[in-house]
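Task card 7
Instruction: Convert sequence to structure tokens.
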Amino acid sequence: MQLPDFKNRLALPDRILLSVDKPARYIGGEVNAVYKDPERVNIRFVMCFPDVYEIGMSHLGIQILYEMFNRYEDVWCERVYSPWTDLDRIMREEKIPLFALESQDPVREFDFLGITLQYEMCYTNILQILDLAGIPLLSKDRGDDVPIVIGGGPCSYNPEPIAPFFDLFYVGEGETAYRQLLDLYKENRAAGGDRNSFLRRAAREVPGMYVPSLYEVTYHKDGTIASFLPKEPGVPEKVRKEIVMDLDSAPYPEKPVIAYTKAVQDRVVLEIQRGCIRGCRFCQAGQIYRPVREKRLETLKRTALAMLEGTGQEEISLNSLSSSDYSHLEELVDFLMETCREKKVNISLPSLRIDAFSLDVMGKVQDVKKSSLTFAPEAGSQRLRDVINKGLTEEAILQGAALAFAGGWSRVKLYFMLGLPTETEEDIRGIAELCNKIVALYYETVPKEKRNGPVQIVASTSFFIPKPFTPFQWAPMCTREEFLQKAGLTRHAVHEQLNQKRIKYNWHEADVSVLEGVFARGDRRVAQVILRAYQKGCLYDAWAETFRYDLWLAAFEECQIDIGFYTARERGKEEIFPWDFLDCGVNKAYLWREWERAQRAEVSPNCRQSCQGCGAARFGGGVCFEAKEGAAG
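Output:
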């Protein structure tokens, strides 16, 4: 079949491409990109990551959906990313519509615009995408001449702050219900149905679909939610997440698209499992991706070989929330070591715990050059680590550090959080004290003749943000001033340590953290602030060089929305959350039990030690049934 010559049909003329930073972001034509004849497909879907190309090309979720959609003969899926500020200005001045990379056709001409919601601070970029595409920013203003705008990803577990901008949200993992949704779209179109009839049917007939326009919210006088209910019969009161229980048979890209310019994650990614057994109380991903589901070792071996063959990449990374907990990690690493040695490919092992097993595995793949080790104690004191259910003792941390130093590592990165529930000044000082102990341990345990240079500890702190569907969703969040005070105290405590010269300390932006907290826990009223901030010029809020906190504060003031209402107050047990209409698999009773245990600094066992009755067992597989299956075998 002869395809149109898309690669020579660029939407941007040379004079523009030569005037912007990294023009390769906008030309398409990458290795493994998919091209189809638009006349031979029924549905055109454009998948969007609302950030720059290099970041979006590093996102595994889009690669998976791109692969899945393009396996369908009746669908052509393309990609679009946020234009950087230089091209954004030119496109507005010259009225150039936003276009998809593969065909270079205007996004407005597609049937669907799918936007992945990975990070709250990309919300104004969503409006940029809609604006440049010529799609009305508010769903209520759209007719049948523009694409259906659908959102998905982790931020869809509280979609309310951006609900007015979307026609619908797909809640959960994308591999299960999209085929049904696309077939419904074709059926509705063939029957002469319009946009509204499709959305109504999607909400009623397709699992995991949330159509904001079909729900009504009422509020108490104090601003809390009084009710959140469907407007019409047949629309579900609770939208349950979609989940893939058999990862081995799910679509996975063996030939992922390879970026023209250097991507943030310039490697092939091998997903080994989904979910996490650990139950850290601050971690949203650890709750919403329950239960843990592993891929079979043979599946991973086959996929790894196919990906390396299909891309020519020089590095492979294992993807998981906690790689150390994968049951066959040692066998997989041994296989990759043998394979990668032949192909001269590097192996990256993120998300490892600092214990003897993990360090042994790490030592195998870093046997030539020992790069820095990274691990996350999260809190400086044992009491606070118990509050957050980290499952990591100071003894284990120091023992792991000693093993690392004995293995030849001399650089360690440590990640902590400030502003955790029940945190005291003593907990904060504990961060500096723990770093100091690790430095001292290096010089105490490694003979001078075996030292790999001086030890270097890099301690980084982010600010705690209570996320939906975690035990800490009831917790208050610190103000900007409190965050900065805590960061200052940490820095001062580091400077007091005997080994301060061997410790480097840095911290996250407090302004950004406060806004992220509002967007993470906000309701529909926050949408007007996001729209107003975008109209004032806010864009790329996740980037320090473009972030404008003053404009955000002005937008909140003009909309008469109180930041503290969403961040600083503790919630009561019976309060209705903006996300309570969603069923993420874990139940609210379990989360409340964990919140109460946190306040008593009680540790809960992980999923393989003892079931905590979170509710995820109803999905009928994964870690919830490992013991039973093992006993039966």
